[in-house]
Amino acid sequence: MFRVLQSSVLPVIVLIFATSVVSLATPSAPIAIRPIPTTPVCPLKNMACCVNVGKVGEVAVDEALIKAGLIPNPKDNLVGFNQCRNLTVSTAFCQFNELCCKDNNHAGIVALHCDLLRGPIIVDPPPPPPPPST
Q: 40: helix, coil or strand?
């Protein structure tokens, strides 16, 4: 009797398995595919967080470069300035401008030859309170 039971159970198990494989292979809803992020790869040693970002020739950028003892050079193009700090694994959070800079060794005053990875995190202010009811 055990052999008869075993042979009659086997097709049922195969049928259940086949049905579950088919149902997994055919999704019932469309699958959304997210695009691959296009953020450039930046070595950790080149990552910086600066309060401001600008181009050489802008007054604030040129003043920061002069403060750092540098002569403004149009080849520097995008410059991070104002409280720049290197990002490391332990300080990876940047609420300002996250940059990839080839030269960020200027005492936190400026970072040169930069690409902007991410702009500042802006937190929306709370909505105004409703007007008082009269």
A: coil
Overall pTM > 0.70: no
Please report, in angstroms and rounded to a whole number, the separation of the first and last CA atoms in the chain.
86
H/E segment holding residue 7:
helix 2-25
The amino acid at 74: P
- For the segment 8-24, what is each residue's pLDDT rounded down to a tens digit? 544 444 444 444 444 44
Q: Which domain holds residue 102?
A: 44-118
Q: Is 108 helix (H, G, I), strand (E, B) or coil?
A: coil
The domain tally of the chain equals 1
By the 10 Å C-beta count (0-12 exposed, 13-18 middle, 19+ buried), 3 is classed as exposed
Q: Report yes or no on 12 lying in a domain.
A: no
Flag whether 63 is in a domain.
Answer: yes
